[in-house]
Every structure is written in C-alpha cells, then in structure tokens.
Amino acid sequence: xxxxxxxxxxxxxxxxxxxxxxxxxxxETTELEADNLPADFLKINPYGKLPTVIxxxxxFFESAVVNEYLDxxxxxxxxxxxxxxxxxQMRLAVLQLERELYPLYADTRNSRKKKEAVGKIKTYLSSxxxxxxxxxxxxxxxxxxxxxxxxxxxxxLESIGVDxxxxxxxxxxxxxxxxxxxxxxxxxxxxxxxxDY
Length: 197
Hints:
Blueprint: E1 2-6, H1 11-23, E2 27-31, H2 39-44, E3 52-55, E4 58-61, H3 63-73, H4 84-107, H5 114-131, H6 145-156, H7 168-178, H8 181-186, H9 189-192
Parallel strand pairs: 1-2
Antiparallel strand pairs: 1-3, 3-4
C-alpha cells in the first residue's frame, strides 16, 4: 500500500492525490499542515516537503518527481505521452507551471501581492484559452501530468476571485478535467468547500 503525507490545502499535494486517485491505488493518507509538521514525519522526510509518498519503503517527495514515479511504477492509465518529443513537451509544461503559475497563486495569499498576481494569472489564462482552441488537453489530445499540474490551480481560481466565464475554451477544458471521477475522489474537504461543487 502507498503511504501519502498530504497537505489538504496545498495544490502540490492535490496534484499527487489526483494521480493516486486516477491509478485507483490503495492509499493510506495522513493529512499534515506544512507549517506544523510533527517530529515523526521529519524523521521520514527531513526536508519537510509535502506531498511525500512512501512506496516499497522508499521515500519520494517533490510533486513532479512523485507523480512521474507513480506513473512509471503504476502505468495504467498512462499519464505521459507515447513519443519522446511529447514527453519532453509535457515535462517543460510542468516545469513552466511550477516556476510561473504556482508562485503567482502563492502570491494571491499575500494581501500586498494579490492584485498584481491575479492580474498576471488572468493574462496567463487568456493566453491559455487561445491555446486550448486548438487542442483538447495541454499536450494535444491526451490527458497527461501537465493537465494534472494545472488542475489544482484552476480549481482554486474562484476562491481568489478569478471569473473564467469569458474564456469558453478554458471553461470547456476545466469541465473535462473536473468531470473526471479521479478528480472528484482527489478532493480534500477543504478543496470541496472552495467551489459550488
């Protein structure tokens, strides 16, 4: 059984919960708060990073690493494209989202930075809406780890005051993502309360 240490508020933990739910793996989940980690967890992961996964007595952390590991260890259904070029595109997309969109979301939690961060998120979403006019998912026609990386931020948009109604392609994309049974199973109680669900 996979052991998961997860923060119920954190988009990074949410990403891994989406992957685990999609793989339909038996999971023992322990919910922790990143700013109040118990000593017994820090013995397992001295870096204090969430999510943390233990599988076959091996400890993994950093969401992108954990999710790629889970997809390779439990390959059905696959969350990576078949071709090397598309896998590289997917990894670049995940890296870009981690470097650009995730910090902007974090800045929305800071009252001094929120207005600017929300403006930049809206600019990103407008561009994404145009991009999604040409394809079903972030990397072409296949649902991948790039979509998994984007889903938690998209789910939280309403809670930071971002209305997506004017972006039809984005709204259709979000519907495709949020209607997936694995997404529904991945939500913590906190995340369920973020939107009219």
